[in-house]
Specification:
Mean pLDDT: 93
Bound molecules: zinc ion
Strand content: 5-15%
Shape: globular
Helix content: 25-40%
Largest sheet: 7 strands, mixed
Order of helices and strands: EHHEHEHEHEEHHHE
Radius of gyration: 18 Å
Low-confidence stretches: none
C-alpha cells in the first residue's frame, strides 16, 4: 500500500478500479475542491499488476506523485486483483473499512456501465460498500459511516451527464497528474517519439474536457451523474444559459 498521511476528516473520496482512472475522470474536480480548502482522497481498488507497461512499484510511485500534483490528502491502493474486480462481500468490507476510516461526505464512483468490466463493477461495488459501511451492527473496526452524496464520474461512459464541474483552471494541472504516470503514458524508447505520444494523449483529453465544457458554456469540464433528482432553492441562481 502507498499510504499518505492524515486520513482524518475527508470531504470528498474518489474510488476507482485502477491507478490513473481518477486522473482521467474526476481529477480536475478533486483539485478544484482541494483549492477551495476541501480535503480529498483517492482509493484505487487494484495495484495495476496486469498493466502491460511498468511494474506495480512504478505505478505506486507514479500514483503518489499524481496525488501530490492534485493536492490530494490521502491515497491508498487495495489488493483486489487487477482485471478481476468482483463485487464480493469480502471486497465490499474492504472498501467499507476505508469509508469508515475517512468518513467522506461525498463519494465519487465510476459510472456503473462501462466497456471495462472493472470500471462497471467498481461503481456497483462502491455503492454497496457505502451501504455496508453504515450498518451499525457490523464490526469493521471503526464507527459506522455513510457518505451523504454519491456521484458517478461518467467520462468513460456514453451517457448525458446531469451536471458538469468547471475545470478550466485545473485542466493543465490535471493533465500534469496524468503525465506523472510516465511508465504508462510516455514511450519507453528514449527521445524521438516521446512528444508525439504526449501530444496525442493531450488532444484526446482536451477534446473530452472541451466537449463537456461546451455543454455548460465553459472551456473545460468533467461530467457527473447522480441517481437523485436535483433540488433548487432559487430559480435566479441556476447556472448555464438556455438560449
Ligand atoms: Zn481503469
Amino acid at each position: 500500500m502507498t499510504a499518505m498521511p492524515d486520513a482524518s476528516h475527508i470531504d470528498v473520496l474518489a474510488i476507482a478500479a485502477h491507478r490513473d482512472d481518477v486522473e482521467q475522470t474526476c481529477g480536475g474536480t478533486l483539485l478544484r475542491m482541494a483549492e477551495r480548502g476541501r480535503r480529498t482522497a483517492i482509493l484505487d481498488l487494484t495495484q495495476g499488476e496486469m498493466g502491460t507497461r511498468g511494474t506495480v512499484e512504478d505505478r505506486a510511485r507514479e500514483a503518489a506523485e499524481a496525488a501530490r500534483i492534485l493536492k490530494v490528502s490521502w491515497r491508498q491502493a487495495l489488493d483486489i486483483p487487477d482485471g478481476r474486480v468482483e463485487n464480493t462481500y469480502d471486497n465490499r468490507c474492504k472498501v467499507a473499512r476505508v469509508i469508515r476510516q475517512l468518513c467522506p461526505r461525498v463519494l465519487i464512483l465510476p459510472y456503473w456501465q462501462a466497456r471495462h468490466p472493472d470500471h462497471a463493477t467498481a461503481g456497483v461495488l462502491g455503492y454497496e460498500a457505502a451501504f455496508v459501511a453504515g450498518l451499525a451492527k457490523l464490526d469493521l473496526g471503526a464507527p459506522p459511516h455513510r457518505p451523504f452524496k454519491i456521484l458517478y464520474a461518467s467520462l468513460y461512459a456514453d451517457v448525458r451527464p446531469m451536471f458538469v464541474v468547471d475545470i478550466s483552471e485545473q485542466f493543465e494541472t490535471r493533465f500534469a497528474s496524468l503525465m506523472a504516470y510516465r511508465s504508462q503514458y510516455q514511450d519507453q524508447a528514449a527521445g524521438s517519439s516521446l512528444f508525439p505520444r504526449e501530444a496525442e494523449i493531450r488532444e484526446r483529453i482536451a477534446a473530452m474536457a472541451g466537449f463537456y465544457g461546451l455543454l455548460a458554456g465553459v472551456r473545460y469540464a468533467e461530467p457527473f451523474v447522480q441517481k437523485e433528482v436535483g433540488l433548487v432553492d432559487d430559480l435566479l441562481a441556476i447556472p448555464v444559459q438556455s438560449i
